[in-house]
Each structure stands twice: as C-alpha cells, then as structure tokens.
Structure of Major facilitator superfamily (MFS) profile domain-containing protein:
Amino acid sequence: MAISTSRSSQNLVETPGLNQVVLPSLSLDETIEQIIGGFGWSQFMQAILVSIPAFFDAQQAFISIYADAEPKWHCSTFDTTCNSSSNICQLPKSAWSWDEPSHNTIMSEWGLECASSFITGLPASSFLIGSLIGGFTLATLGDFCLGRKNLLYLSCLIMSVTALMTAFSTNIWMYSSLRFVSGLGRASIITCSLILLTERVGKRWRGQLGMTAFFSYSLGLLSLPAIAYLNRGSSWRHLYLCTSIPAISYNIIAYFFVYESPRWLLMQGRDKEAIAILRRIASIEGRSLESYLSSIQPTQEISKVNPYKLMKDLFKRRWALQQIFAAMVVGFGIGVVYFGMLLGVGNLDFSIYLSVIFNASLLIPSNLLALFFIARWKRKVSLFAFCITSGICSIICFVVGSGREGIQIGLELASFFCSSLAYNVLIIFTIELFPTSVRNSATSLARQAVAFGSVFDPILTSAGRRNEFLSFGIFGLTILLCGFFVIVLPETKGKTLCNTMDEQERKDSMIV
C-alpha cells in the first residue's frame, strides 16, 4: 500500500486486447524515478531504520560533556583553611571532597583535577581527530567496495562496540585511544544515512526525506541529558553502557532489514540484487512495475577501479573540483560558527546553562524549517541567505558588547540557528551536486570541512575571553566570506540524480 501514488502510470500505454504495457523510451535514471518516484510504506520503514544510527552518533559525539566533566567539590567541615575560592590543587586531599561519588566522572575517578588542559582535553580531541581521519579514509569505500549499507553498518558497529569497551577503561590513555577509534568509526554515519535515504526515493521526496537523519541526530542529542540525569551519582561508565548496548542491538536489526541503494548496486553491475530491492521499495505495483523492471538493461559501465581513483576523479575534472572546493569552503565557514557558538556562550554575560539549553533546543525547529525551505526554496538561495544572516548576527553580537545580555544571547541564538539551517541545506545540496559514483566521497569531504572548521573554535573561544572580536567577530566574518562561494555552485532543486561523472558532464553541457 503506498502513502502517495506515483504518476508513472500516466506515462504507460496499455495495448488494447493484450495483457502488456508499452513503455516510452526512458533512461536508467528515469526508469528508477518511475519505480520509486512516489513514497510507499516500505520506503517509510527503511527511512526510519536508516536514520536511527544518527541518534546514537549524537550521543557518542557529546557524551564527553558528562563523562569528562570536572565535578563540583566542597571543603571538609573541620578544615578552616579551605574556602570556595581556594585552588583545589594547593589544598591537601583531606581538606576537601567531591560533591558526588568519586567514580562520577573520569576527572574524579582518575584524579585528573590538577592535570594539564592537554591531558583533560585529550579524550575529546582524540574523538575529533578520529572523526577527521575516518571521514577521509572510509568515505571512498562507500562508493567503491562496501556500498552505502555495509559502510553504515560497519561505522555504527565500530562506534558502538568501542563505546562499550570504553566503559571498561582503566586509565586516561586507554580511554583516549578508544575514543579515537570510536570517532574513526562514526565519521561516515551521517553521510551514509543521508545518501541511503536520498538514493532510494524519487526527486520529489529527496530533500524532505533526507532531513529525517537530522531529526534523529537532534533527538539523540536531546536524549543524552535525560540519560545523564537518570544516572546522576552513578559511574560515568553507566553512560557508555546505556548508549552503546542499544546501538549494538540496532546493528543486529540493520544487518538483516536495511536494504542497499539500488543505484549503487546497478553501478557495480549487481543488477539482479538491484531489481530485487527496487521491487521491495517500489511505489507502484502490478504490471506497471514489472514492465519497468524488465526494461532495465544490464549495466554497461561497472566501477572496478582502485577506491582512491574515485577521489582522484573528483579532483581531476575542473567542474567537479570547482564544486567540491566551493562546498568545502562553505562547510568550513559553517563549522566555525556552528560549533563556535556552542563553545563561546561562556564568554557572554548570561547563564551558561540556559545558553546551552536554548541552543540545543533550536536543533529540532531548525530541522523543521529546513524541510520547508528545501521543499520551496532553491538550494543556492537558501544556503546563501542562511550563511549571510548567521555572519551578520554574529558580528552584531560582538558590536553590541557586554552589558546587553538579552540582545547578545538573542543574536547568538539567531546566528547558531541560521548556521544549523545552512548545515542541513549544504549536506542535501552536496548530495545532489555529484553523481552516484562519487557521491559518498564528495558528501564526506563537505562534512569533514565542517569538522575541520570546528578545530579552531577552542582557540578562538579562549582568546575571545579577552577580546570578543577574536570569537564572535571572527566567527561572523568567516561564515560571511565563505558564504559567497555558494554563487559558483549550480542549482540542483528538482533535478534528477546522475550515476557517473561522464553522465553528469553530458547533462551539465546540455543545460549550458
């Protein structure tokens, strides 16, 4: 039963007196579009299954907020030399104690309260570095040998199993190493989820359905404080157990019930598998479906090259290099603001707790609005408008200065909100810009550019405590300047997806 009926039947002609359907001459992409152009229940269930990994990804990405936190402490009642302004590192151990049990975080359990900032920040830094490396090394495998489903499964499995192992860490070095591997594994989760979502539906639903992964990510982030609150007073290890075990359970389900992208299978010459999956997720039924499936010819061009040749091909062609470079520059600017705003709220004269809650609460409405803009606005207009607005709000936030807390936090929230919208649109835009053969690689590069932009945020935030221009001023200027690179990108709204680089070139030349 289909949620919405495809219009493909309008293109069919039934021969009078004969039990057959005559099809118009269609390309492979047009045939696939006719088969999955609507939106059926099977596609809906697949969308839910493919979006779930983003939920667990958000939990592991931000779990260090609670597991690595420095807990509060108090002076012992019998010690008169201790007070709330004392330096804990200059007091004897008998003069103070933690408010919560010592196993509450890694800081208190392993006695890291007086360790250097390098040591205490090592786990979070290791996770980020692992994400960067994983994004560059694993992304191409999704286009070459593993495919979208297997890479999604492998990424989620590495992340969840490593998270489970992290709960049994015995020191900061083992903990940081496991966090690095976890970051390495999770790097491709969002990318694979988005591509699986968009490659298995028609262009009418592509943008809207692609947003379900962002919804799942937002829900995962919002679930983390609830899990941490329920485990307050318990060991930090419980957080990793509570988030990793459900993720491992999901992997078992995904292995059996998630379908591969039929577009990718056709590119690999695995036509029978692709046709079988198209039959399961088709939005049409009966003779029309069978006629379209029978018209699919064996794939002539099969990708059997070295995986990194695909990445080389992405940079070898001038048009592809121009587009991926522009997408990465825009992504870098978005990353600087997206993460910088969250890290920089401590520099504002406003409650840091309320600031974080307000920012986190904006993620879901930003996803809802992104659905609206993707359905109605062109990609270039949306992305450019969000980048420029985010930059202007960030710069005005610096210009307003301290003493106007309400205005500052309002501008900060507006800037973060627009950067979140820009991020969502950028990912969908990048998926539509490149053909199936390099789509996973190109989208991963855009996401890695976002992650790379966040690397500079801790330094800028620290410098911004003395001069706000070095935080909010730089954040705003960066996304403002990077946003202008959107101009060189072609519009993709409503256009069909291509399978190969040559097909993309021919299509672009015809448009020109």
Remarks:
- Confidence is low (pLDDT under 50) at residues 1-22.
- The longest strand covers residues 2-4.
- The radius of gyration is 25 Å.
- Residues 169 and 392 are 45 Å apart (CA to CA).
